[in-house]
Amino acid sequence: MQGSANLNLMIKAARKAGRSLVKDFREVENLQVSSKGPGDFVSKADREAERIVKEELMAGRPSYGWLGEETGETEGADPTRRWIVDPLDGTTNFLHGLPHWAISIALEHKGEIVAGVVFDAAKDELFFAEKGLGAYMNDTRLRVSGRRTMLECIFATGVPFGGRPTLPATLQDLARLMPVCAGVRRWGAAALDLAYVAAGRYDGYWERGLNPWDVAAGVLLVKEAGGFVGPIREGENPVESGRLIAANAEVFDGFTRIIRNPQ
User: Fold this and answer.
1) For residues 110 and 128, what is the distance between their CA atoms, to the nearest angstrom?
2) What's the pLDDT tens digit per position in 174-228?
3) Which CATH superfamily is domain 5-141 in?
4) pTM score of the predicted model
5) Nearest to 72 by CA among 87, 60, 57, 62
6) Tens digit of each residue's pLDDT (9 = 90 or more) over 11-69
7) 9-48 in b/e burial notation, b at 16+ Cβ within 10 A?
8) Is residue 244 a contact partner of residue 230, using CB atoms and an 8 Å limit?
9) Numbered ranges of CATH 3.30.540.10 in the chain
10) Residues 2-11: pLDDT tens digits?
11) What is the mean pLDDT of the chain?
């Protein structure tokens, strides 16, 4: 796929940050780590990756706004466009030497995500999409799975840790979902969970307590791969609220009913 200038800029930034992260990942035991709270860590590698991404993107598009996990929000001269970036989704995996983490970059235009990149540098899998132009992984066009029955489906989620208030709701979700599906996975990187739904590796995904930088790029990947994305609470914006459901078209309605069921 021949991408736009913006998408090519995003890919260049993701790959450059990915090289830095892979180098640090090889020396994970020597990383300088500081605590942001129970179970939530930020590393020197994380901050350096965001610096690289921001430097690349803002050099190419200095008028765009910025929303990053580590550096917060900056309004741009162009109020209609902003970058939404997680420089290291799956930080805990990274710090424990688990090769399942990614860089997530999205471009928002007038409140809508129009381009997204999720780069799994450890596996050299680059997921990317532009609105209306499909989703890809490296050179392969992505499509969500075609499974039609819940009993055939594997779902992904994040199980809250460290006393987070969304734990009871998630445990209730699991109690309703697990008896009627083929399994649930918890791999610790929301951006990759959504990319895997787009690739048909998972049939669906849901989670609460997320941030826009966790999911903005992944939501576009799922939509451009033919999947559906919706809020857990009806009427909300799933990217802004941080509560979302994603799945292939065949099981989305049934999956949504199970997750939204208050009983």
Assistant:
1) 20
2) 999 999 999 999 999 999 999 999 999 999 999 999 999 999 999 999 999 999 9
3) Fructose-1,6-Bisphosphatase, subunit A, domain 1 (3.30.540.10)
4) 0.93
5) 87
6) 999 999 999 999 988 887 666 676 665 555 667 889 999 999 999 999 999 999 999 98
7) bbbebbbebbebbeebbeeeeeeeeeeeeeeebbbebbbb
8) yes
9) 5-141
10) 789 999 999 9
11) 93
Percent with pLDDT over 90 in the chain: 82
CATH number for region 150-260? 3.40.190.80
pLDDT score of 44: 85
User: CB 131: neighbour CB atoms within 10 A?
Assistant: 15
Lookup: tokens for 244: 């979302």
What's the order of all strands across the beta sheet hosting 125-130? 72-74, 65-68, 81-89, 102-109, 112-120, 125-130, 135-137, 140-141
Q: What is the dihedral of CA 222, 196, 64, 87, to 10 degrees?
A: 160
**Contact by Cβ (8 Å): 96, 87:** no
Query: Which residue do the tokens 């995996």 mark?
Result: 93
